[in-house]
Every structure is written in structure tokens, then in C-alpha cells.
Amino acid sequence: MSHPAVLDIDTPALLIDLDIVEKNLEAMQTKADSLNVALRPHIKAHKIPELALIQIQKGAQGVTASKVTEAEKMADAGIKDIFIANQIITEPKLKRLMALTNRINISVGVDSVAGAEILSQVAMNAGMQTEYLIEIDSGLNRCGVPPGEPAIELFKSIRQLPGIRFKGIFTHAGQVYGQQSLKDVIAVSQLESEAMAATASLFKDLKICPEVVSVGSTPTMRVWKGSAGVSEIRPGNYIFLDAIQIALGVAAPEECALTILTTVTSRPERQRAVIDAGSKVFALDKGAHGNELIKGFGLVLGRNITLERLSEEHGILILGLNEKLTIGETLRIIPNHACTAINLFEKAYGIRQGCVETELHIAARGMVR
User: Which residues pair with 274 in a beta bridge?
Assistant: First the structure.
């Protein structure tokens, strides 16, 4: 049976190069195995159960999710071990969390006494025991308690609460996305692991050994060389990579598996062209934490062309010297941020060597609760 050619797809379309995906997955799994740590990839990067199952088949311990609804989609696909790297507070979410606890091995993040008490009460009322990890703020200044003694004090304050069980500590050094050089990325990666290893060691005084000491972001894990105090890594975007990862120096364009296929629809001026993909396709994203290294809203493959600005349905291109484009011509563009782009589509085309092999439903798209 012949497969349709990529160029026969109507645009804009989301393309996933399956050969590159497999290389990226195998490289990270090999790193985790060689450094004797568990790999628990974050599925918010792709939101596709079929890809999560491939990650598990290649050796991942389980997966990470951001939201209960994401975890539900992964559980429905047969994944049995999920960590929700977030604080679950509202009653509707907690009820669904308890239902998941009946089905799979699930754990959640905690960073306050108040949050732990809410989780404890709901779990106790449901006759459940929910595992939790204390979130450590290793420099992002988002959620989490500072490393060291504050984490120990939080643990002491909540260790006797019924219905919940301490599993470990985790962090996300998301400040790495604001760095300006590969050297800076390496420094953040080292700091992330050092802060977690030092915090974990303090539990020894309480005769407690955290089962899990978890770190992770794609940039920090791409340069990571291991740490004696870390037992788990949680990169997500490593499956695809994107223009932000290229700008940070941790990826090359040929390692990027996700691209947007788009068509030139207008040529108002010699240096200006317009495509049929705007902010509803690429998202207005130059890095979640801002990065001056990002130029435009995506990397146009093989061309000296800048995707300079976006409106909702249009992308405005600026052509470099000697570049020519004709109306009806197609381009493939690596988005700045693969995770936000994929959440804007209902399906992706899995491709190999220029042909469409499969269509992938983005089942966890829009799962924000």
C-alpha cells in the first residue's frame, strides 16, 4: 500500500518525523540507562498516547503530566505509572485524582502545608493513600519551597497527615529557557542537580531516604552528565526539540522532529510574503521565560527567510537576499516551542522519508484541568 506524499497534505499541517522521534527517544533512554537513573518523560510535550507508549516500550519508568485530565488520557491508553508535577487543589480535580488512584500508580506534587492538608482530607475521605513529592524551587521562582532546610520543615509539618505518603522531591529548572549561551545552560543543569542532591541528603538526619529525587527540563537534560544524588529525570520536549532548543545550543535543526507545513498565499512585496499559518498555528511564543536569542516565530527550513510576525490566520515572512517565493509554494517551519504548537492541533501526520505513514490524534490537546 502506497503512502501519500507530504506535499499532498492540505495546509497548515503538523508533521512529525517518526525516524527523528525514534532517534531522540533512544538517545535520551540510553543516557538515562548509562547514568543509572529512571526516565519519566513529560507528555505535555506531545500529548499523544501512542508516543507515550513508545516511550514506555523503550524503557521509560512511567510518564509525567501537568494536569489530571492529561493523566486520565494516558491512563486510558494503558499507562500505569504517572506523576502529576503540579499541585492539585480544587475538589473536582481531587475527585478525579482519587478515581485514578484506584486504577494506576499515581503521585502528585506538594509545596505547602495547606495543599497537603487538602490532599490528605480528600484521600482520607475516599479511603485512599496518595503518594506525593515535595516540589523544590531550584531557581525558577515559580512553585516549590527553597532547597535545603525549608523542604525538611515542610516535610516535618505534613509527615503525620493521614491519607498521603511521602515519595520524594522534584524540581524543574525552567529558568534555563532564559539563558543566553550553552555555558549558561550547563551551569543551570549543574545547579539543579546540586540543589536536589544536597536537599535529599538532609533527610538522612530524619532517617528518611527519598525514594525519588527528580530533576528535569529538556535543555538541562541534554547537557546533563549525571549526579550521585539524582534518581530520576523528566525531560519532555526532547522527543521533538524546536527552535528554542536550537537557540540555546542544545539541538541542531536536523534533530527537530516537529515541523509546520504551510503554503505561501500572498506576495505583496519582493521581500515580503504571507503564509496560511498564524498565531493559531505557531502560538505567539518566544520561550516561556523570554529569550533574546529567539528571532521571529519559527525557523524556516533550508531558506534565508524570517517568520517575522503573526496575526491569527497569517504569518508574515521577510525574505533574505536572493530568496524567491511563489504563491502556492510550501514551506516547512520548525516552531519556536513545540509544546504550545502541538496543543493547537487536533491531529498530526507521522511521516517517514517524505511520505505520510500515519495520522496521530492529539488526545490530550486542551486538557487543562
Answer: 266, 316
Cα–Cα nearest to 130, from 144, 146, 116: 116
DSSP string, 235-278: --GGGT--HHHHHHTS--GGG--EEEEEEEEEEEETTEEEES--
Sign of the Cα torsion 151, 155, 156, 157 reads: positive
- CATH number for the domain formed by residue range(s) 6-11+250-361: 2.40.37.20
For the stretch 132-178, pLDDT in tens is 999 999 999 999 999 999 999 999 999 999 999 999 999 999 999 99
In this prediction the pTM is: 0.96
CATH superfamily of 19-237: Alanine racemase (3.20.20.10)
CB atoms inside a 10 Å sphere around CB 194: 15
The DSSP annotation for 148-176 comes to: SHHHHHHHHHHTT-TTEEEEEEEE--GGG
What does the block give as the cell for 75? Answer: 491512563
Q: Does this chain's domain 6-11+250-361 share its CATH topology with 19-237?
A: no
Spell out the domain ranges in the chain.
6-11+250-361, 19-237
At residue 367, φ and ψ (nearest 5 deg) are -80, 90
